[in-house]
Structure formats: C-alpha cells, structure tokens
Design brief:
311 residues, alpha+beta, Thrombin, subunit H, 2 domains, six-stranded antiparallel barrel, 17 strands, 30% strand, binds 2-acetamido-2-deoxy-beta-D-glucopyranose, Peptidase_S1_PA_chymotrypsin, disulfide bond, protease, Ser/Thr_Proteases_Immune/Dev, secreted
C-alpha cells in the first residue's frame, strides 16, 4: 500500500514539475520584453531572469537649468537630476565624492571613494543642490551607510574595476525629486562612443579649478576605447569608458559621480559610466570612467533584495 501511495506521489510531483516547466517555458517564449512596458528586474540578472511587470519609473529629468554658465559647465536646476547624491564624511559633514541612486537602498560610486573607509563614518546626501547647508531643498535628506561592496577585482594601483555599491541603513524616500537612475540593461552591448553624456558634480575635491556650492553639469563626448588607447598609450580596459571633449575648459566633477546617457527614444537617463580617474573634462586629456554595462551582472547579483526598473 505504502509503496503505491509513494508511486502516486512521485507521479503527481512529476506532473506538477512538468506543468511548472511548461509554464516557465511559456513565459520565456513570450520572453521578448515588450516596448513601453515598465519592468522590474529583480534577483539575479545573470541567471534565470525573474522579471515581473510592475509599474516603475527611473531616469527622468526635472525642469532644466537656464543659463547660469560657469567655466566649462553649467549649474543644474534645483533637483533637476533626482538620482544625484553626494557622499559625505559624517564627522566633518564634507562632501568627498559623488554617487548615483539605483534602487531604494542602493547607490553606485567609485571603489576608490569608499576604499579603506568605515561604512559607519559615511552618509549619502540626496535631493540637495547647494551643499553648504545640506538642507537647502524640501527633498534634501541624509541617509546613513549600512555597508558597501567594492568590486572584488578593484585594483588600487590601476583603478581597474573602480566601482562600489553602497547600501543605506534605511529605505530612501522617493519622489519626483529623489529617484533612481535607469541602468542600461537593454543597452548592455552598446559602447556609447560618439554619444554625448552629462557628468554631474559639486567639484569640491580631486579636480582643480573653482569649486562650487551648487551642483554643476557638463556635456562630454564618449570616444572609442581604440582612440582612447591611442591617446593614453594602451592603458584603458574594455570595462572603462573614455570621455573627451577637445576645447572644453576644465570643469568640476567628483569621482564616483555619474555619466548619464539620454536615450532619445524615451528621454530617459541611464547611468552608463562612473567618474573614475583622469580629469572629467580637462583640455587635451580624456577622462577615464568605469563602464557600467560591464558590471550589470555584478550589481544585480550583489543587491539581491533590490528591484530595478528596466526601461
Ligand atoms: C546568479 O546566477 C548565476 C548563474 O545561474 C549563479 O552562478 C550565481 O550564483 C547567482 N548569484 C546569486 C547571488 O544568486
Ligand atoms: C549656497 O548657500 C550658501 C549658504 O546659504 C550661500 O552663502 C551661497 O551663496 C550659496 N551658493 C550659491 C551658488 O547659491
Ligand atoms: C574577477 O576576476 C576573475 C579573474 O579574471 C574572474 O574570474 C572573476 O569572475 C572576476 N570577478 C567578478 C565579480 O567579475
């Protein structure tokens, strides 16, 4: 008797397994992601894709700045770029790097920004514009850092794999003015050369030139890695991306801050680079940035409790 029930159970389990496999393959056969559908990609991007369709949004830009031109760059509008954040040394309240919001507890920055620092000494300031006060907009908020993950292959000597993920202690409150950037999941094969990107920063550190209280932006051109390697005697890796705009004067930016590519099809901004080394927009020398598309799998598999919006 017992063995009969056992067999029945096995048959039922096999049947159930078959039904589940069928259901999954049906999902995958419709797998092409429909246009104009907002999706969350959660869990493990490199493994079975666990995308669930929800309403989500990312990468929009608020009212543009007018004409406050500064050397080589412009002051942004207040809260124009909702994903922009500043890394703050809590003991002094000073900004030392830029960062970009990618999910409600996560930001991306450069590895060298957080390397050798204790997470508990760090904060991220979001929704801010004039960083001298830290509370100058209705959306300014300081979040504490719970932990960070530096890419395991980050090199302190070459700056290769200069990327880190920051986890805040609590969920960030999102609004029109504080919101995540889009990650370039659907553009992972693009090299972005010939495209323009926006870089953002307060320029308080690491770059020469006048510093600024308020967030500054500049538009730069992405060049091919081949051309960049000609300029920099073959020191650039495939997981880096160079920006170079001949004739641009020096302008401010901060390490760890974003290179934003605007998709002309949907007007969304995607984080395609992280300011790493070399000068963001100096005369006659390309800036070297971390190429975000090379790290999408690492980002998604390191932030397993996050949801990403794939547009
Ligand atoms: C993600 O999926 C890959 C391939 O299936 C697997 O090797 C890896 O362990 C997974 N990572 C996580 C964090 O689940
Ligand atoms: C930033 O705020 C400080 C303190 O309120 C103020 O003195 C300064 O002029 C502001 N900077 C700009 C560029 O508005
Ligand atoms: C780090 O580099 C090793 C050797 O090239 C490679 O096998 C590994 O996948 C890399 N780690 C990540 C997270 O990319």
């Amino acid at each position: 008797m017992g063995s009969n029930y056992g067999s029945l159970l096995i048959v039922l389990l096999l049947l159930l397994g078959y039904v589940l496999v069928q259901a999954q393959s049906t999902d995958e056969s419709t797998g092409k992601i429909p246009d104009n559908v907002n999706m969350f990609v959660s869990g493990n991007f490199s493994g079975t894709r666990q995308a669930t369709v929800r309403s989500c949004d990312c990468g929009w830009r608020n009212t543009e700045s007018t004409d406050l031109k500064i050397v080589g760059g412009y002051e942004t509008g207040v809260n124009e770029f909702p994903a922009m954040a500043a890394l703050i040394q809590l003991s002094t309240g000073s900004l030392f790097c830029g960062a970009t919001i990618i999910a409600d507890r996560y930001l991306l920055t450069a590895a060298h920004c957080v390397y050798n620092r204790y997470a508990s000494t760090l904060g991220v300031l979001v929704g801010d514009h004039n960083i001298t006060s830290g509370t100058d907009t209705a959306y300014s908020a300081l979040y504490y850092v719970n932990a960070y993950a530096i890419h395991p292959n980050y090199s302190t000597s070459t700056y290769n794999n200069d990327i880190a993920i920051i986890q805040t202690t609590s969920q960030m409150t999102f609004s029109t003015y504080v919101a995540p950037i889009c990650l370039p999941f659907y553009y992972s094969t693009y090299d972005f050369s010939g495209q323009q990107v926006i870089i953002l920063g307060w320029g308080q550190l690491e770059f020469s030139g006048p510093t600024s209280d308020t967030l500054q932006m500049a538009a730069l051109d992405v060049i091919t890695n081949t051309y960049c390697n000609q300029l920099l005697s073959n020191t650039v890796t495939t997981s880096e991306m160079c920006t170079y705009t001949s004739g641009k004067d020096s302008c401010q930016s901060d390490s760890g801050g974003p290179l934003l590519w605007t998709n002309s099809l949907n007007s969304r901004m995607y984080l395609v680079g992280i300011i790493s080394h070399g000068i963001g927009c100096a005369l006659d020398s390309p800036g070297i940035n971390t190429r975000v598309t090379s790290f999408l799998n690492w980002i998604v598999s390191t932030t397993t409790d996050a949801s990403y919006c794939a547009l």
